[in-house]
Specification:
There is one protein chain. With 82 residues, the protein is an alpha+beta fold. The chain has one domain. It is 33% helix and 17% strand. The protein contains three helices and four strands, in the order H-H-H-E-E-E-E. Strands 1-2-3-4 form a four-stranded antiparallel sheet, with no helix packed on it. A hairpin with a 3-residue loop joins strand 2 and strand 3.
Length: 82
């Protein structure tokens, strides 16, 4: 599931998920097949909100993260976090 290419309505649904299982169920419901890397990211708590870290492009606090990059759920921008 390429979070950058999701329409705003689906991004909102992903942001509303509170567990990796909910994200996986949503992906299946929407007809997406997740890669092993994507499953690892969400299984490790890859969807998160952080009050201290903000997207440098739009200021959102909602992300999907990998190592070492975050993908902003609001605008799709990829950036490194430290």
């Amino acid at each position: 599931m390429d979070f950058k290419s999701l329409d705003p309505e689906l991004r909102a649904k992903v942001k509303a998920c509170s567990t990796p299982e909910e994200i996986l169920a949503l992906a299946k419901e929407e007809g997406y097949t997740l890669t092993d890397e994507e499953l690892e990211q969400i299984g490790g708590g890859g969807l998160w909100t952080n009050d201290e870290l903000k997207c440098p492009k739009c200021g959102s606090k909602d992300f999907v993260y990998g190592n070492p990059y975050c993908t902003c759920l609001s605008c799709g921008y990829d950036f490194e976090y430290y």
